[in-house]
Amino acid sequence: MSLYGVLRTGVSGMNAQSNKLGTVADNIANANTTGYKRASTEFSSLVLSSGKGSYNSGAVVTNVRYSISQQGPLVFTTSMADLAVQGNGFFVVSDEGGTPYLTRAGSFVPDSEGNLVNTAGYYLMGYPLANGNPNVTLNSLDGLERVNLANLAMSANPTTSASLGGNLPIGAAMGDTFQSSLIVYDNVGNKVQFNVIFEKQSDFDPLAPANQQWEVRIEGVDPTGWSAGPFTLEFDTSGQIVAGATMTPINIPNGQAMTLDVSTMQQLASDYAPLDPIVNGNAPSQVDKMEFGKDGTVYAVYEDGTRIATYRIPLATVPSPDKMTPEAGNVYSASIESGNVQVAFPGQSGLGSILSGALEQSNVDMGEELTAMIEAQRNYTANSKVFQTGSELLDVLMNLKR
């Protein structure tokens, strides 16, 4: 047996317990840190070969593990910009230089430039919806931009699509008309009102039912007297629309070509009943607040009540989240052991949903950490006794020469 080996083994044991105390200290210090994931120290033995009649003491090797995939408890807040992931997945954030990271820390607030940034200074990333639905690259973070609220102030958007549902009475006589009014918006946000006029083109014979047709005209209410159509709607004998469900183009004065969707219109034995008028676009208005959908869609809600989808926030993950590399600020980067980043929208590909007005707390159990601290303290003391005993035996050996 080598007394120097005993000393080295004792030092190895003290170093291992020091590492364990280090992770315990980090966990306790970050017990109230949003999105923090606890670290733990695992031990494995290092055995040295020994000959007959002698034993060479080895050492202990430490391996730090992170419980990144373990979700912490959720707490609810009064800020709609506080975001939490319910289930699998991570927010994609970036630092000042644009380097992307993954995180569960969703305490975002607008900075001086309108970018949503969390308490660690990382910017929330999302896909802009200005040009329609984004094309997501499943294995790349390309195309993501900082979610910015400043660019949304005092915005006017022209109407490009509208829809109207309801019922047209099947018993109406040829020439009967019904009308409803809609408000749309031109290029600079002016309100433009028009009437949608439905005129029956034939009488209904219950003894010989056949497809029924309606003529649809669009007539502007303003003095210019603009109009569009006529369009033809056709319903089958069960009252379902079979032709003319989409009317286009309807050219709004000083606006865009609009599509009017009436695919949910029916022809049943009931009175005229227009339902569910929906129009996109809005008049000039300031942004009143932001809303975040569970599917990651970010809506700008204007003072006039108009709600416009502006961004869509994706979630990202890796095959082995616990193997990611932790970085300062509760962010993680992919490593060789964790696998490459995979991107999708909330609710897709096994990913969770986004909760607005909530934060994920750390997954640290204070009782467990205090117990681990006591164990590490006792074990450190025991290893120091081994070192002390080896040192005393060396003193005895040295004194044999005297």
TrEMBL record:
GO terms for cellular component: bacterial-type flagellum basal body; bacterial-type flagellum hook; cytosol. Residues 84-135 form the Flagellar hook protein FlgE/F/G-like D1 domain. Residues 356-400 form the Flagellar basal-body/hook protein C-terminal domain. Gene3D superfamilies: Flagellar hook protein FlgE. The keyword Transmembrane does not apply. One of its GO terms (biological process) is bacterial-type flagellum-dependent swarming motility. A flexible structure which links the flagellar filament to the drive apparatus in the basal body. NCBIfam families: FlgEFG_subfam. Keywords: Bacterial flagellum, Cell projection, Cilium, Flagellum. It is found in: Bacterial flagellum basal body. Residues 177-273 form the Flagellar hook protein FlgE D2 domain. Belongs to the flagella basal body rod proteins family. This is Flagellar hook protein FlgE. It holds the Pfam family FlgE_D2. Residues 7-37 form the Flagellar basal body rod protein N-terminal domain.
